[in-house]
Amino acid sequence: MHSPLQTRQPEQRCRPMTSTVSEIEEVIPDEDSDRTTLLNGEPLRRRVSGKLPVDEGPRRIFRQQSFGRDIGHAAAETYLITGLSFKLLRYLGVGYRWMTKLLALTCYAMLLMPGFLRVAYSYFFSKQIRRSIVYGDQPRNRLDLYLPSNNDGLKPVVVFVTGGAWIIGYKAWGSLLGMQLAERDIIVACLDYRNFPQGTISDMVTDASQGISFVCNHISAFGGDPNRIYLMGQSAGAHIAACALLEQATKESKGESISWRVSQIKAYFGLSGGYNLYNLVDHFHNRGLYRSIFLSIMEGEESFKKFSPEVRLKDPIVGKAASLLPPIILFHGSSDYSIPCDESKTFTDALQAVGAKAELVLYSGKTHTDLFLQDPLRGGKDELFDDIVSVIHAEDNDALTKDSLAPPRKRLVPELLLKLAREVSPF
Question: Boundaries of each BD-FAE-like domain copy (predicted)?
Fold first, then answer.
């Protein structure tokens, strides 16, 4: 990137708080590690009353049970997603555009399968990944944590909201990014959230905000630095994260009760996002996300203003709250046809017009999936990845030195398959 933003220090330090569950609990740390012991992807806890023993006997039992619990959780999520898929089909009906997209998506996934299988293996078996940590009380209020193998000191943190057209988003979609950032000593928290038709846009924004709050208040228990938290979203996730960030700034400016502060976020990274629903509804309809479905997801056209960050900035109250926003960097490919790069251009202009610190980074010739999938699977040098890491490590000279000496990333998919996948991509 031409010139990394100098992110500002938080105005107020983020302190770990108690869990959002009704009973007050405390996390039991490993005796030989500064990390947190996890059971089925969740922190192993005991109540303050001390009734649960913490000797090695119960620990061994819990470890033996963890695999069975993982299988049970996977089965429950499979059942949930299958049910939602059938419900979604009733909304979609039988249409030429989406049937064509589905076929293209199948071909695309098959071509990239060698890389997906390798990532999936690491996702399920890596000791550095803590899966399905519960952050709220809704069915999909879970997150995955990607932890560096190096335990020295507190690590910077990226809260990542995955994309998926507000319909097929899932926390595991961020696994490749999470693993690669963890190799650079950065903790990544990939949030899951309710998708349509299980929820609508207001539910998604609420879930994302609650996940961000959990990370801000609890990440120190996992070795994260609560004063170096970055928010990132991709595609639909960029839209959801931007809505959550702007809504939080508005609440904060009004003096409303909040569980996390915008000043706790050092910077926001928006990757290939859309920020003005008025401009996107017809575009998506022509690409197979029919207007009727899009209106259902966004709670009707009357809600477009509320969930269009670019438009909301024109409201004097929201525009004033924009002064609270962290530095914002929007990344977009110039050949993105799923969400045109003009979305990031006009949002950058709107942010700058109200005094927010915003920067646009365009990647010439890159498509919607080049930046997030094909380039990372290709291995070697990745311009987007390097730009993100350079901002996160901008104030850490030792980390920058390590980055400069890091070996090239491994190729996960042959070049021929990557080129074919690019040609058939439905995105």
Answer: 143-351
Specify whether the CB–CB gap between 275 and 265 falls below 8 A: no
Examine the pLDDT at 50 and tell me if it is beyond 50.
Answer: no
Task: Using alpha carbons, select from 252, 240, 233, 174 the residue that is nearest to residue 203.
Answer: 240
**Omega into 197 within 30° of 0, i.e. cis?**
yes
The 10s digit of each residue's pLDDT in 237-264 is 999 999 999 999 999 999 998 999 999 9
CB 48 within 8 A of CB 24: yes
What is the structure's pLDDT at 168?
A: 87
pLDDT of residue 427: 81
Residue 324 DSSP one-character state: G
List of E strands, 138-247: 142-146, 155-161, 187-191, 224-234
Nearest to 271 by CA among 239, 297, 243: 239
362-391 pLDDT, tens digit per residue, is: 999 999 999 999 999 999 989 999 999 999
- The pLDDT tens digits for 113-132 are 999 999 999 998 899 999 99
For 95-114, the pLDDT digits (tens) are 666 677 778 888 999 999 99
* Catalytic positions, written as ranges: 235, 336, 368
Radius of gyration of the chain (CA): 21
Four-CA torsion 99, 105, 111, 112, nearest 10 degrees = -170
* Contact indicator for 188, 178 with CB cutoff of 8 Å: yes
- Percent of the chain exceeding pLDDT 90 equals 67
**Residue 27 phi/psi, 5° resolution?**
-80, 135
Question: 10 Å Cβ neighbour count for 66?
Answer: 15
Q: What is the three-class DSSP state of 233?
A: strand
**What does pTM read for this prediction?**
0.82
Cα-based distances in Å from 214 to 136, 145, 221: 8, 12, 11
Looking at this protein, which amino acid is placed at residue 415?
Answer: E
Measured distance CA(188)–CA(170) in Å, rounded: 15
User: What distances in angstroms separate CA 230 from CA 9, 199, 238, one per listed residue?
Assistant: 12, 26, 13
Note whether 159 and 191 are within 8 A (CB). yes
Name the H helices within 234-329: 236-254, 277-286, 291-297, 309-312, 316-321
Question: Where do we find the tokens 């429950």?
Answer: 76
Q: For residue 214, which amino acid is it?
A: F
Indicate the DSSP class of residue 299. T
Q: How many CA atoms lie within 13 A of 48 on its CB side?
A: 6
The residues with which 153 forms a beta bridge, in sequence order, are none
